[in-house]
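Annex B.
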Amino acid sequence: MSSTDESSSSSEEEVKKTKKEAKVKKSKKDTKSKKPKKEKKNKKKKKDANAPRRYLSPFIFFSKEYRPTIKAENPKATFGEIGALLGKRWETISADDKKRYEKLAQEDKKRWEMEKKVYDENKKNESESESSDSD
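HMG1/2 box-containing protein: predicted structure tokens.
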């Protein structure tokens, strides 16, 4: 055998080895995918239907007012595009105009705080009455 024959045969052996390694790797991947995965579901707390609705931000008050106008100006706009246009318009309005929406948001936050206080008191009273009933 000449040296070229030896080098070609050794390179052929290397190719065979790499092909075998690739097959082994594939078979390992296949066995991993065949095993059933254990999925853990993070269960969310269900919201209490009697809980007060959260207060709205100034931007939400602005959006409620301007959404019909934007829709009329851009009837073919998608929901996302309308949101983007509202965001751009919100950035362009003056600070004085924003104060009006900030005032509405503050009033809504006060409403929420009062409702939440009443809700928490009622919830506390219910839990106390349930614990005294079980005695």
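The chain is about 75% helix and 0% strand. The longest helix spans residues 95-133. Further annotation is deferred to the next reporting cycle.
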